[in-house]
Write a structure and sequence with these properties.
429 residues, alpha+beta, Cytochrome-c3 Hydrogenase, chain B, 2 domains, 4-stranded mixed beta sheet, 3-stranded antiparallel beta sheet, 14 strands, disordered C terminus
Length: 429
């Protein structure tokens, strides 16, 4: 193992397609290439020539699981370009849309991708229905995901590729009976979410991920508005975010990497809780108090715990909004100018998402740019894999054990690429 080549040509239990190639010489990693093989697919070029009204739905196709985040971020960039101020109800519905997305998407990652590692099984459905503990886990997973799907469906029209959010507002509002059902479902699912938090709070996995953390922050804790902050106290306005990112060409990857002031950084749930845990919903802080003691954390596996806490926050915020809002049909907010440049920055489930759009006098998009969370995390992931391998070689672990630990680390970052079924066999030489 002190001299070996490793090759993972497909990575399982993550979103999408990626590969990993590592060369080890004299116990040190001489080369580590984490390659994202499925990424932008020329969406930024394809934005050009489209009318801004069609842009959010088009860009939702960047990602199946995070589609509603792309819709919301695209809408924000278009609204800012055209001087549109969303109504208070529109902002409420946007918050409910992102809450539904986070509940469903975090549950997907935690249960289907991360939890099998804790239980030493290959797949979530390998849990034993006849074991009381595992029976409960199976049902908790489906109940939490179902609540997230239902909330997104009644607010956005669908749980993915939402139909109702558009530039200037929402095309439909939820029915009162659906709101009442959602409130009941959210209240009923809270115990399952608390059990989820406890699972990942008690997880013993550890890898010290000393890096910088960056996220869009606001008070109260949210995902759609605020300022970008990092762990060294720097504050960046949304419109200036791109100016603070250094784009790094990675010749063996379809994705660009990013650094901030020459250093890699991390975005996502761990970053958000490290920077803003004190602004979470009061009920979340009360019921997840023992878990929140862990933050700020430099253990990358606490990204899973942070996601579990964010599910609870999403439930609590959604309950407040649904119980205090009387939805009424309203006209879409109108543009105050015909053209402009707009920047949208939101927190998608996996971290800070950036959309920029330039719209001409005829309403047609001239150009645009998208920066997704996994691109920002890519350099960090690659660096941590190399360091992990060197630590494991010193422990004289088997090839299979090293492979498993590499998989666990990559999954902890929750990179967003469409699912591959299994890792292929690692080729060692």
């Amino acid at each position: 193992m002190h001299n070996a080549d490793l090759s993972l040509t497909e990575i399982s239990k993550v979103e999408g397609a990626a590969s990993l190639n590592v060369k080890v010489k004299n116990g040190k990693v001489a080369e580590c290439k984490f390659t994202i093989t499925e990424f932008k697919r020329f969406y930024t070029q394809a934005m050009r020539g489209k009318h801004y009204a069609a842009l959010p739905q088009f860009l939702s196709r960047v990602c199946g699981t995070c589609s509603n985040a792309h819709i919301l971020c695209s809408i924000e960039s278009c609204e800012k370009a055209l001087g549109i101020t969303p109504t208070p109800q529109s902002m409420t519905m946007k918050k409910l849309t992102i809450s539904g997305l986070n509940i469903r998407d975090h549950a997907l990652h935690l249960y289907l991708f991360a939890l099998p590692d804790i239980y030493g099984i290959d797949a979530f459905l390998d849990l034993d229905e006849n074991n009381p503990e595992q029976h409960q886990i199976l049902h908790d997973a489906f109940e939490i995901k179902e609540v997230g799907n239902f909330l997104a469906t009644i607010i956005a029209g669908r749980s993915v590729h939402g139909l109702y959010p558009t530039v200037g507002g929402f095309l439909q509002i939820p029915k009162p009976e659906d709101v009442a059902t959602a409130i009941k479902k959210l209240k009923d699912v809270r115990p399952a979410v608390l059990r989820t938090i406890k699972i990942f709070e008690n997880c013993k996995f550890n890898f010290d991920n000393k890096t910088h953390y960056m996220a869009l922050t606001c008070n109260p804790f949210g995902f759609l508005e605020g300022e970008i902050k990092n762990d060294i106290g720097e504050v960046i306005q949304e419109a200036d975010y791109r100016d603070h990112l250094e784009r790094v060409i990675i010749p063996y990857s379809q994705a660009s990497g990013y650094r901030h002031e020459g250093e890699s950084f991390m975005v996502g749930s761990l970053a958000r809780l490290n920077l803003s845990k004190d602004t979470l919903h009061e009920n979340t802080k009360k019921d997840a108090a023992s878990a929140l003691v862990k933050f700020p954390s430099t253990n990358i596996f606490d990204n899973n715990l942070a996601q579990a806490v964010e599910i609870l926050h999403g439930v609590d915020v959604a309950l407040d909004l649904l119980e205090t809002t009387k939805f009424k049909k309203e006209a879409l907010a109108k543009p105050t100018r015909k053209s402009g440049v707009g920047i949208g920055v939101i927190e998608a489930p996996r971290g800070t998402l950036y959309h920029k759009v330039s719209i001409g006098e005829d309403g047609v998009v001239l150009e645009g740019e998208i920066i997704v969370p996994t691109g920002q995390n890519q350099i960090n992931i690659e660096r941590d894999i190399a360091r992990l391998i060197e630590e494991l070689i010193e422990k004289d672990l088997s090839k299979e054990d090293i492979q498993f630990e590499m998989e666990k680390l990559i999954r902890a970052y929750d990179p967003c690429m469409s699912c591959a079924a299994h890792f292929l066999k690692v080729n060692w030489s």
